[in-house]
Amino acid sequence: MSLLIIGTTALDSIKTPHQENPRLLGGSASHAAVAASFFTPVHLMGIVGDDFPDTYIQLYEKHGIDLSGLERASGNTFHWEGEYEVNMNNRRTLETDLGVIENWTPSVPTALKHSEYVLLANCAPQLQHHILRQMIQPRFVAVDTMDLWLNIARQELESLLKEVDCLVLNDSEARQLMEEDNVVKAVQAMHRFGPRQVIVKKGEHGAILSGPDGLFIAPAYPLDQVVDPTGAGDSFVGGMMGYLAHHGGDVAKHLRAAIIHGSITASFCCEGFGLNTTTETTRALIDQRVEKLKGMVGY
Ligand code: AMP
Q1: What is the pTM of this model?
Q2: pLDDT, mean of residues 51-72
Q3: CA 194 from chain center: how many Å?
Q4: How much distance in Å is there from the Cα of 287 to the middle of ligand 1?
Q5: How many whole angstroms from 298 Cα to the centroid of ligand 1?
Q6: CB-based pocket (< 6 A), ligand 1
Q7: Which atom of ligand 1 is least distant from the CA of 230?
Q8: Each residue of 105-146: pLDDT tens digit?
Q9: How far apart are CA 275 and CA 21, in angstroms?
Q10: Ligand 1 mutation target, pool 12, 28, 31, most atoms within 8 A of CB
Q11: CB pairs under 8 A, 24+ apart, for 85-88?
């Protein structure tokens, strides 16, 4: 079954203690779409400006991603600039230029309105809600967000959360949303906003799911070198949704395996800048790492 992903299709300028890389292909929807493409056909909705290189369009095409919902407008593509400290868990946003996405009020193409799996990847909650209102009886909707939207669009986010099945966010955002330091308490308390499934991403420490079947703890794949973790969270949720869409049927039955596959897909993302290593991955390599991880947690 296919998956609709909407979010930012961006140019990212990323600084780490070792390297600087300007205007790489990035954005929540780009990372999520490439990650999901290893599992299922993906339809991407986004908007880019006239500065968006054709080579990046070719990268989406290499992954068989349907671009019928990708618009091109005159103006700048969403641009995000971030800097990592020596401890790569700490990053600062230096600049966010919304560009052409700021005034975008997209219409979901008729052929995509019946998509059963929908990922509202990180972008303005108003935009995520605008897309969701156009969908016709989706089976499973997940939403990802970040601190910027908690700070400037909290009410819009809370109104969206009443209508989605799954909320995904990272641990500092969960603490911020719930004003609760303990992540286990925070993940369980977030159900009160609406979603039956809540997932907190904890970077190199994995992820926690809270749902009707209780808690599930997923480890991250241990990497001896992290080059650039940008997009790891988006790759995680993209891989997870791709896995769910591929399997169809009862989401609750597949969700734990989907989280493990999302976590492994994210590990490839961290090994290179931007999408450089994710795009070289294959489903077979992902499955190999899943098996290795199983061996590491078995006892
Ligand atoms: P992650 O590392 O998973 O948190 O995601 C990083 C990606 O999110 C980058 O590729 C950015 O282009 C994108 N991004 C950064 N800020 C925002 C924002 N405010 N809204 C949507 N996407 C963003």
Answers
A1: 0.97
A2: 98
A3: 20
A4: 26
A5: 34
A6: 8, 10, 12, 26-28, 31, 80, 96, 122-123, 146, 148, 230-234
A7: 2
A8: 999 999 999 999 999 999 999 999 999 999 999 999 999 999
A9: 12
A10: 28
A11: 85/17, 86/17, 88/16, 88/226, 88/228, 88/229
Query: How is residue 177 written in tokens?
Result: 């949303």
Right CATH number for 3-297 from 3.40.1190.20, 3.40.50.970, 2.60.40.10, 1.20.1640.10? Answer: 3.40.1190.20
Q: Whose CA is nearest to atom 18 of ligand 1?
A: 123
Res. 243 pLDDT band, cuts 50 70 90: very high
Write the CA distances from 298 to 21, 224, 253, integer angstroms: 39, 20, 21
Distance 28 CA to ligand 1 centre (A): 5
pLDDT, residue 253, reads 96
Amino acid identity at 77: T
